[in-house]
Amino acid sequence: MRITCLLSALVARQDKGIAQERTVISRRSVLRGTAIGGFWLAAAALTGCRSSSESAPGASEAPAASVAGNAGKTALDAIKAKYPATFQDPPGMQPRKGGTLTTFNANDIASFDTTKSGASGNLSHTNTVMDTLLRRKMTTNADELRGTGDPRGDLEGSLAQGLPEVTPDGLTVTFKLRPGVKWQNIAPVSGRSFTSQDVLKAYQRYATTGVFQEYFESVARMETPDPLTLKVTLKQPNLDFMIPLAEQNTGIFPMEIVDNNTIDRVIIGTGPMMVKEVRKGQDATYERNPNYWGPAPYLDGYRIKIMQDPAAQLAAYRAEQLVSTSAKQLKDVEAIRSTNPKSQLRYVRAPKSTFHTAFNMALPKWQDERVRRAVSLAIDRETLNATLYDGLGYTLPNIPWTYLFTEEPTTEATLGKYFRYDPAESKKRLQAAGQENLQFEYVYQNAYLGEGQNAMILDLYRKAGFKVTPVSLDYVSFNSMLASVKYPDTIQAWDSHGEVINNYFSNQIRSNSPGNWFTIKDTQLDTWAGQQSVELDSNKRKDILRKIWDRIQDQVYHVETTNPAGFTLYQPFVHGLQWGRILGESVGTPFGYSNGNFIGSIWTEKSI
User: Fold this and answer.
1) Which of 25, 165, 468, 537 matches a 20 to 30 Å C-alpha distance to 339?
2) What superfamily does domain 100-328+573-604 belong to in CATH?
3) In CATH terms, are 2-82+350-560 and 100-328+573-604 the same topology?
4) Contact indicator for 66, 415 with CB cutoff of 8 Å
5) Taking Cα atoms as reference points, which of 555, 231, 566 lies closest to residue 373?
């Protein structure tokens, strides 16, 4: 299989040294967006890895011609072993108390009112100070990162003592709060006791104000029977309700700073760090909360610098002035390690694709699944990955596989018959549909995938015989067209991110859902979407989710393209790092949106 050969060759090449250049593929011409013919020379060079079933034009369908299967899994496992998703401190290393650490955010501070925005420039600050009711389970074990696909297995208590009690009918959810929690000793709360009324009032504000009201749409009422109990009654069963309560968007703030109109510029919480100084456009510094309810943080302080220049960020990391930096390709990793050889490395690979071709399903040609399948069969995902991302990118369905499988899907049984490259079969599908001269307009922009991949995708479509009219839009116009679902034909879409199961198995696929940007109208999917959203038995729900997954893969309602993976490098003197289990598409990471969940365990041998 092609992907097996590519991955195996990649592992062998990397074992000889990360800086070695690929000899069979010339990346430069593609990345420049010019001389695309060089891509086809590269593709031809790869055909020696093909199975015989995909070598001859006009051959029969050849199931899973370029789906990796068990051999592909083995090669993928080798890559993950070489570039792990987590790392651990050496055995026997003892934490040290004291010191400060500095990280950065590229976005300036707009407002500390968490109802107004989900931007990292706001939440990375508020969540250094605030706590949430629940949180993701933490781990340093890469095998545990994927989680269970069930919020009851992947979440734990934060301000709540543990997971809530849920009645058998799924309609009443009761949280018990930790006793003895106090607000930080800052006016106007001045260290008073934290109670269920604080949670109630914060949640009532989220439910009626700002951008996260949808999290509480299923709530009929909320009550506080006593100072340590919050009782939530739902309109219908909804296990997903508890997931946002563990995320960065629902940090709990005191109503005193709402009442005195300072919430835009003041952060007060119950978390491990408290604000020391905020200088807009420059930085924010934090100090240990001496009255924190959990284990006392090791760090004396923490600082977030506002740094928008990537070159300046990298230079600061090299000078050991920042905790971490990121890299997109192996050559970038090697360049950083040439100056910082002891950097701790983490390989970042999401459990889903974000980018894909979406169809305007109001047009008759796209209502024929044979035509949609032909488009999928025309995409050479493995060559895109090898050419652009050293084979370390990924092409997956745009639903997180972690909801359904214990391992990343690589076979026809999990990815379907059309998640492969077979141009001859693509032509046969078009002929059967009477669309031999398929024409369509393809709207795209380069801020996400980049000019190189867009050029390759367009060339693949033309190679397949499609008559494509490319339309390149600026960032704002493109996103406006996508979100308003006003694209005339096809579009290089991205899906709205989220941790909630219903985001992928209901909101994005139901015929009349505002989140269905892809104009899908499928009565069978509508039925299953409704069934899974109220199913309380996790095994029965997973069975319905699998039906939805399989139908989407069979009907090809969108055609996923290759997504870049990446790397994060951390200073060697920073320890105690943990990661939160995957919810939806994301791993919980330190020095990001949910700082408060991670900062307590982090310690350093050196202050920066």
Assistant:
1) 25
2) Periplasmic binding protein-like II (3.40.190.10)
3) no
4) no
5) 555
Residue 60 pLDDT exceeds 60: no
| Topology (CATH) of 2-82+350-560 | Dipeptide-binding Protein; domain 3 (3.10.105)
The residue count of the chain comes to: 608
* Residue 172: strand, helix, or coil: strand
| C-beta separation of 41 from 353 below 8 A | no
**Which residues lie closer than 8 Å to 332 by C-beta, 6 or more apart?**
567
Phi then psi dihedrals of residue 66, to 5 deg: -135, 30
Identify the band that residue 495 occupies on the pLDDT scale cut at 50, 70 and 90: confident
Question: First CA to last CA across the chain, in angstroms?
Answer: 48
pLDDT at 321 over 90: yes
- Give the amino acid at 137: K
- Fill in the DSSP letter of residue 381: H
Cβ atoms of 39 and 29 closer than 8 Å: yes
Question: 277 near 302, Cβ under 8 Å?
Answer: no
Best CA proximity match to 165, nearest among 220, 221, 233: 233
**Where do the domains of the chain lie?**
2-82+350-560, 100-328+573-604
Q: Which residues have C-beta within 8 Å of that of residue 167, sequence separation ≥ 6?
A: none
